[in-house]
Amino acid sequence: MIIRKAEKKDMEELLKLYARARAFMKETGNPNQWKDSYPQPEVIEKGIQEGKAYVALAEGLEESGEEGSVQKGEILGTFYFAIEEDPSYQRIEGGSWLNAQPYGVIHRVASSGRGKGFSAACFAWAAQQCLKAGCGNLRIDTHEDNRVMQHVLEKNGFSYCGRIYLADGSPRLAYQKVLG
Prior knowledge:
- The protein has 180 residues and is an alpha+beta fold.
- The chain contains 4 helices and 9 strands.
- The strands form 2 sheets. A 7-stranded mixed β-sheet has the order 1-2-5-6-7-9-8. A two-stranded antiparallel ribbon has the order 3-4.
- The chain is globular and about 45 Å long.
C-alpha cells in the first residue's frame, strides 16, 4: 500500500469510506461510536486542510480483500495522524499510559473492506513517521463496543492502558504502542 496525504479531490470517496465504516460498526455490535454522522464533512475537510488526513492506496491488481480484487491507485482506507498532544489523553482512569513521552495519535480509521492489511499498513506507516520525528509512541482510542478495533489494536502490538473521555464526555478505551 501507498500512503499519502488526503486531498480535497478525495472527499467524495472519504465520505463513502466513513459511511461504510459506520454501517460495519453497526453490523458488528458497535452502533454508538460514530452513530449516523461522524465524522462530519467539515471534520474531514479540516483534517485535509491541516495535512493530517491520509489515504492508503492499492499498489497493484494483486491485492484482494473481502470484496474481490482491487485496482492500482484505489483508496483502500483513510485515517487521521498527527504528532500532537490529544487533550482527551490528559486524564486516564483505570490504568495509566505506558510512559509520558511524546506520541503520535491515530484517529478516524476507516477501511473500504477491499485489500488486505490496511490497518497494519496504517499503524506501521504511523510508527515510521513517529520514529523519523524522534517520537517513540503511538496512541489511539476506541469505543468499548468496537471489539473489531480492539482485536486489531492488540494484534498490532498496542497495549490497553485505561479509559479516557472525549470532549463531550464519551468514554473510550485507550491504547498505546511503544516503538523501537
